[in-house]
Amino acid sequence: MIDPHLPFIDLHRHLDGSVRLETVLDLGLKHNVPLPADTLEGLRPFVHVSGPQGGLLSYFEKFKWMTATLADYDACRRVAYENVEDAAREGIDYIELRFSPLFMAEPFSLDPLGVTEAVIDGVQAGLRDFDTTVSLIGILSRQYGERSWLELDTLLKYRDHLAALDLAGDEINFSGSLFVEQFKRARDAGLHITIHAGEAAGPAGIWQAIDELGAERIGHALTAYTDPALMDTMQQKGIGIECNLTSNLHTSLIPAYAAHPLKKFLEHGLLATINTDDPGISTVYLRHEYETAAPAAGLTPQQIRQAQHNALQTAFLSAEEKTALLEKKQ
Asked: What Å distances lie between residue 65 and 16, 51, 104, 174, 223, CA to CA?
Protein backbone atom coordinates (compact mmCIF):
# COMPACT_ATOMS: atom_id res chain seq x y z
CA MET A 1 0.00 0.00 0.00
CA ILE A 2 2.82 2.42 0.83
CA ASP A 3 4.63 3.64 -2.28
CA PRO A 4 8.36 3.15 -1.59
CA HIS A 5 9.17 5.79 -4.20
CA LEU A 6 7.37 8.54 -2.27
CA PRO A 7 8.39 9.95 1.11
CA PHE A 8 6.57 8.43 4.08
CA ILE A 9 5.16 11.47 5.90
CA ASP A 10 3.14 12.23 9.04
CA LEU A 11 1.83 15.81 9.15
CA HIS A 12 -0.34 15.57 12.27
CA ARG A 13 1.24 14.10 15.40
CA HIS A 14 1.05 15.61 18.86
CA LEU A 15 4.41 15.38 20.58
CA ASP A 16 2.72 15.32 24.00
CA GLY A 17 0.33 12.62 22.79
CA SER A 18 3.22 10.40 21.72
CA VAL A 19 4.94 9.62 25.02
CA ARG A 20 6.13 6.06 25.51
CA LEU A 21 4.37 4.16 28.29
CA GLU A 22 7.79 3.18 29.63
CA THR A 23 8.71 6.85 29.81
CA VAL A 24 5.52 7.78 31.65
CA LEU A 25 6.28 5.11 34.25
CA ASP A 26 9.99 5.91 34.51
CA LEU A 27 9.45 9.64 34.91
CA GLY A 28 6.58 9.10 37.30
CA LEU A 29 8.67 6.92 39.60
CA LYS A 30 11.68 9.23 39.30
CA HIS A 31 9.70 12.33 40.28
CA ASN A 32 7.37 10.66 42.80
CA VAL A 33 4.28 11.38 40.74
CA PRO A 34 1.24 9.53 42.18
CA LEU A 35 0.53 7.32 39.16
CA PRO A 36 -2.51 5.02 39.10
CA ALA A 37 -0.19 1.99 38.87
CA ASP A 38 3.50 1.21 39.31
CA THR A 39 3.89 -1.37 36.53
CA LEU A 40 3.56 -1.10 32.77
CA GLU A 41 0.64 -3.51 32.61
CA GLY A 42 -1.10 -1.77 35.46
CA LEU A 43 -0.59 1.65 33.89
CA ARG A 44 -1.58 0.64 30.37
CA PRO A 45 -5.40 0.97 30.66
CA PHE A 46 -5.02 4.49 32.08
CA VAL A 47 -2.96 5.69 29.11
CA HIS A 48 -3.74 3.48 26.11
CA VAL A 49 -7.02 2.91 24.30
CA SER A 50 -7.89 0.07 21.94
CA GLY A 51 -11.41 1.08 20.95
CA PRO A 52 -13.94 3.92 20.96
CA GLN A 53 -14.11 6.03 24.09
CA GLY A 54 -17.05 7.96 25.49
CA GLY A 55 -16.31 10.94 23.27
CA LEU A 56 -13.61 13.48 22.56
CA LEU A 57 -13.26 14.65 26.16
CA SER A 58 -12.93 11.07 27.42
CA TYR A 59 -10.10 10.56 24.97
CA PHE A 60 -8.48 13.82 26.08
CA GLU A 61 -8.38 12.46 29.65
CA LYS A 62 -5.63 10.10 28.53
CA PHE A 63 -3.37 13.10 27.98
CA LYS A 64 -3.35 13.60 31.73
CA TRP A 65 -0.72 10.93 32.27
CA MET A 66 1.29 12.02 29.23
CA THR A 67 1.96 15.42 30.81
CA ALA A 68 1.64 14.55 34.51
CA THR A 69 5.22 13.29 34.57
CA LEU A 70 6.82 16.26 32.76
CA ALA A 71 8.33 17.41 36.03
CA ASP A 72 11.34 19.26 34.62
CA TYR A 73 12.93 20.42 31.39
CA ASP A 74 14.98 17.24 31.04
CA ALA A 75 11.72 15.28 30.93
CA CYS A 76 10.43 17.53 28.12
CA ARG A 77 13.73 17.15 26.29
CA ARG A 78 13.60 13.36 26.65
CA VAL A 79 10.06 13.12 25.30
CA ALA A 80 10.97 15.25 22.28
CA TYR A 81 14.07 13.16 21.59
CA GLU A 82 12.10 9.92 21.83
CA ASN A 83 9.49 11.27 19.42
CA VAL A 84 12.21 11.70 16.81
CA GLU A 85 13.67 8.27 17.53
CA ASP A 86 10.25 6.62 17.26
CA ALA A 87 9.50 8.36 13.97
CA ALA A 88 12.80 7.18 12.53
CA ARG A 89 12.17 3.61 13.68
CA GLU A 90 8.78 3.72 11.97
CA GLY A 91 10.55 4.51 8.73
CA ILE A 92 9.05 8.00 8.54
CA ASP A 93 11.01 10.27 6.20
CA TYR A 94 9.44 13.51 7.37
CA ILE A 95 7.26 14.33 10.36
CA GLU A 96 5.70 17.48 11.75
CA LEU A 97 5.49 17.34 15.55
CA ARG A 98 3.20 19.79 17.30
CA PHE A 99 3.12 20.86 20.93
CA SER A 100 1.56 23.40 23.28
CA PRO A 101 4.13 24.94 25.65
CA LEU A 102 1.49 25.90 28.23
CA PHE A 103 -0.11 22.46 28.17
CA MET A 104 3.24 20.78 28.77
CA ALA A 105 4.30 23.33 31.39
CA GLU A 106 1.10 23.33 33.41
CA PRO A 107 1.36 20.21 35.64
CA PHE A 108 4.59 21.37 37.33
CA SER A 109 4.30 25.13 36.71
CA LEU A 110 7.31 25.10 34.42
CA ASP A 111 8.29 28.16 32.40
CA PRO A 112 6.79 27.76 28.88
CA LEU A 113 9.99 29.30 27.49
CA GLY A 114 12.02 26.56 29.14
CA VAL A 115 9.64 23.90 27.85
CA THR A 116 9.92 25.23 24.30
CA GLU A 117 13.72 25.35 24.48
CA ALA A 118 13.82 21.80 25.87
CA VAL A 119 11.58 20.50 23.07
CA ILE A 120 13.76 22.15 20.44
CA ASP A 121 16.92 20.76 22.08
CA GLY A 122 15.44 17.26 22.22
CA VAL A 123 14.40 17.33 18.57
CA GLN A 124 17.77 18.64 17.43
CA ALA A 125 19.56 15.92 19.39
CA GLY A 126 17.29 13.35 17.79
CA LEU A 127 18.03 14.67 14.33
CA ARG A 128 21.75 14.26 14.99
CA ASP A 129 21.24 10.62 15.98
CA PHE A 130 18.52 9.40 13.61
CA ASP A 131 17.84 9.52 9.90
CA THR A 132 14.59 11.45 9.56
CA THR A 133 13.49 15.05 8.99
CA VAL A 134 11.37 16.97 11.50
CA SER A 135 9.53 20.28 11.61
CA LEU A 136 7.97 21.68 14.75
CA ILE A 137 4.51 23.24 14.97
CA GLY A 138 3.55 25.38 17.95
CA ILE A 139 0.03 25.09 19.32
CA LEU A 140 -2.19 27.73 20.86
CA SER A 141 -4.65 25.89 23.12
CA ARG A 142 -8.17 27.29 22.80
CA GLN A 143 -9.04 26.72 26.45
CA TYR A 144 -6.33 29.12 27.66
CA GLY A 145 -8.22 32.10 26.21
CA GLU A 146 -6.30 35.32 26.75
CA ARG A 147 -3.30 33.33 27.98
CA SER A 148 -2.85 32.34 24.34
CA TRP A 149 -0.97 35.64 23.96
CA LEU A 150 1.62 34.34 26.42
CA GLU A 151 1.80 31.10 24.49
CA LEU A 152 2.21 32.99 21.22
CA ASP A 153 4.92 35.25 22.67
CA THR A 154 6.74 32.15 23.88
CA LEU A 155 6.60 30.44 20.51
CA LEU A 156 7.60 33.54 18.54
CA LYS A 157 10.75 33.88 20.61
CA TYR A 158 11.78 30.60 18.93
CA ARG A 159 10.23 31.43 15.58
CA ASP A 160 13.31 30.27 13.64
CA HIS A 161 12.77 26.74 14.98
CA LEU A 162 9.08 26.54 14.04
CA ALA A 163 7.36 25.82 10.75
CA ALA A 164 3.80 26.70 11.68
CA LEU A 165 1.21 27.64 14.28
CA ASP A 166 -1.83 25.53 15.14
CA LEU A 167 -5.01 26.10 17.17
CA ALA A 168 -6.20 23.06 19.14
CA GLY A 169 -8.35 22.14 22.11
CA ASP A 170 -12.00 22.73 22.96
CA GLU A 171 -13.56 23.69 19.63
CA ILE A 172 -17.12 23.77 21.02
CA ASN A 173 -16.62 26.35 23.78
CA PHE A 174 -13.76 28.42 22.32
CA SER A 175 -14.42 29.67 18.80
CA GLY A 176 -11.58 30.42 16.46
CA SER A 177 -12.94 33.97 16.24
CA LEU A 178 -11.30 34.61 19.63
CA PHE A 179 -7.84 34.16 18.10
CA VAL A 180 -7.90 36.24 14.92
CA GLU A 181 -5.28 38.75 16.06
CA GLN A 182 -2.95 36.06 17.37
CA PHE A 183 -2.91 34.31 14.01
CA LYS A 184 -2.46 37.53 12.10
CA ARG A 185 0.65 38.15 14.17
CA ALA A 186 1.87 34.61 13.48
CA ARG A 187 1.33 35.01 9.73
CA ASP A 188 3.16 38.34 9.83
CA ALA A 189 6.06 36.49 11.46
CA GLY A 190 6.14 34.13 8.48
CA LEU A 191 4.64 31.04 10.08
CA HIS A 192 2.45 28.61 8.16
CA ILE A 193 -1.01 28.04 9.63
CA THR A 194 -2.88 24.81 10.36
CA ILE A 195 -6.05 24.74 12.45
CA HIS A 196 -7.94 21.98 14.26
CA ALA A 197 -11.48 22.58 13.00
CA GLY A 198 -14.59 20.66 12.02
CA GLU A 199 -13.62 17.91 14.43
CA ALA A 200 -16.20 18.29 17.21
CA ALA A 201 -18.09 21.21 15.60
CA GLY A 202 -19.63 21.91 12.21
CA PRO A 203 -18.25 23.35 8.97
CA ALA A 204 -18.64 26.96 10.14
CA GLY A 205 -15.45 26.56 12.16
CA ILE A 206 -13.59 25.43 9.05
CA TRP A 207 -14.82 28.45 7.09
CA GLN A 208 -13.66 30.68 9.94
CA ALA A 209 -10.24 29.00 10.07
CA ILE A 210 -9.72 29.60 6.36
CA ASP A 211 -11.23 33.07 6.05
CA GLU A 212 -10.11 34.66 9.32
CA LEU A 213 -7.14 32.67 10.59
CA GLY A 214 -5.47 32.03 7.25
CA ALA A 215 -5.44 28.23 7.50
CA GLU A 216 -3.45 26.47 4.80
CA ARG A 217 -4.37 23.09 6.27
CA ILE A 218 -7.17 21.86 8.51
CA GLY A 219 -6.72 19.23 11.18
CA HIS A 220 -9.49 16.58 11.02
CA ALA A 221 -12.14 18.62 9.08
CA LEU A 222 -14.58 15.76 9.67
CA THR A 223 -17.69 17.82 8.97
CA ALA A 224 -16.42 19.51 5.79
CA TYR A 225 -18.21 17.02 3.55
CA THR A 226 -21.61 18.27 4.82
CA ASP A 227 -21.05 21.61 3.07
CA PRO A 228 -20.58 21.26 -0.71
CA ALA A 229 -19.55 24.91 -1.09
CA LEU A 230 -16.84 24.42 1.53
CA MET A 231 -15.58 21.31 -0.25
CA ASP A 232 -15.36 23.27 -3.48
CA THR A 233 -13.55 26.15 -1.80
CA MET A 234 -11.02 23.86 -0.14
CA GLN A 235 -10.38 22.15 -3.46
CA GLN A 236 -9.97 25.43 -5.33
CA LYS A 237 -7.66 26.96 -2.71
CA GLY A 238 -5.60 23.81 -2.21
CA ILE A 239 -6.36 23.62 1.52
CA GLY A 240 -4.84 20.44 2.95
CA ILE A 241 -6.73 18.13 5.29
CA GLU A 242 -4.88 16.22 8.02
CA CYS A 243 -6.99 13.07 8.48
CA ASN A 244 -6.52 10.80 11.49
CA LEU A 245 -8.51 7.62 10.98
CA THR A 246 -7.95 5.62 14.14
CA SER A 247 -7.92 8.66 16.39
CA ASN A 248 -11.32 9.71 15.05
CA LEU A 249 -12.63 6.21 15.70
CA HIS A 250 -11.28 6.22 19.25
CA THR A 251 -12.79 9.63 20.02
CA SER A 252 -16.17 8.29 18.80
CA LEU A 253 -16.42 11.02 16.19
CA ILE A 254 -16.97 8.28 13.60
CA PRO A 255 -18.69 4.94 14.34
CA ALA A 256 -16.41 2.91 12.06
CA TYR A 257 -13.53 3.37 9.63
CA ALA A 258 -15.97 3.03 6.73
CA ALA A 259 -17.83 6.13 7.95
CA HIS A 260 -14.77 8.37 7.71
CA PRO A 261 -15.02 11.11 5.05
CA LEU A 262 -11.42 10.67 3.85
CA LYS A 263 -12.60 8.78 0.75
CA LYS A 264 -15.10 11.56 -0.03
CA PHE A 265 -12.34 14.14 0.32
CA LEU A 266 -10.07 12.33 -2.11
CA GLU A 267 -12.87 11.74 -4.61
CA HIS A 268 -13.57 15.48 -4.53
CA GLY A 269 -9.93 16.24 -5.33
CA LEU A 270 -9.06 17.61 -1.89
CA LEU A 271 -5.48 17.41 -0.61
CA ALA A 272 -6.33 14.98 2.18
CA THR A 273 -3.57 13.07 3.97
CA ILE A 274 -3.19 10.15 6.39
CA ASN A 275 -1.69 10.81 9.83
CA THR A 276 -1.54 9.42 13.38
CA ASP A 277 -2.56 12.22 15.79
CA ASP A 278 -1.74 10.62 19.18
CA PRO A 279 -0.05 7.22 18.76
CA GLY A 280 0.99 7.21 22.42
CA ILE A 281 -2.70 6.92 23.28
CA SER A 282 -4.16 5.04 20.33
CA THR A 283 -1.08 2.76 20.08
CA VAL A 284 -1.21 2.65 16.30
CA TYR A 285 1.42 4.00 13.99
CA LEU A 286 1.58 5.41 10.51
CA ARG A 287 2.04 2.07 8.74
CA HIS A 288 -1.12 0.78 10.43
CA GLU A 289 -3.04 3.83 9.22
CA TYR A 290 -1.94 3.16 5.64
CA GLU A 291 -2.15 -0.61 5.57
CA THR A 292 -5.12 -1.34 7.85
CA ALA A 293 -7.18 1.76 8.60
CA ALA A 294 -7.17 3.30 5.10
CA PRO A 295 -8.39 0.13 3.32
CA ALA A 296 -11.04 -0.27 6.03
CA ALA A 297 -12.12 3.30 5.26
CA GLY A 298 -12.75 2.20 1.66
CA LEU A 299 -9.68 3.69 0.02
CA THR A 300 -8.32 2.04 -3.10
CA PRO A 301 -4.55 1.53 -3.50
CA GLN A 302 -4.56 4.49 -5.90
CA GLN A 303 -6.29 6.72 -3.35
CA ILE A 304 -3.86 5.69 -0.62
CA ARG A 305 -0.99 6.60 -2.92
CA GLN A 306 -2.68 9.93 -3.66
CA ALA A 307 -2.93 10.65 0.07
CA GLN A 308 0.77 9.88 0.40
CA HIS A 309 1.55 12.25 -2.46
CA ASN A 310 -0.73 14.91 -0.94
CA ALA A 311 1.35 14.79 2.24
CA LEU A 312 4.43 15.81 0.30
CA GLN A 313 2.53 18.50 -1.56
CA THR A 314 1.06 20.10 1.59
CA ALA A 315 4.07 19.65 3.91
CA PHE A 316 5.37 22.87 5.43
CA LEU A 317 8.63 22.64 3.52
CA SER A 318 10.26 24.64 0.77
CA ALA A 319 10.17 23.38 -2.80
CA GLU A 320 13.87 22.52 -2.49
CA GLU A 321 13.30 20.50 0.67
CA LYS A 322 10.44 18.58 -0.94
CA THR A 323 12.61 17.79 -3.95
CA ALA A 324 15.39 16.54 -1.67
CA LEU A 325 12.97 14.25 0.17
CA LEU A 326 11.66 12.88 -3.10
CA GLU A 327 15.16 12.33 -4.52
CA LYS A 328 16.12 10.25 -1.48
CA LYS A 329 13.37 7.76 -2.43
CA GLN A 330 14.39 7.34 -6.06
From this structure: 10, 18, 11, 24, 30
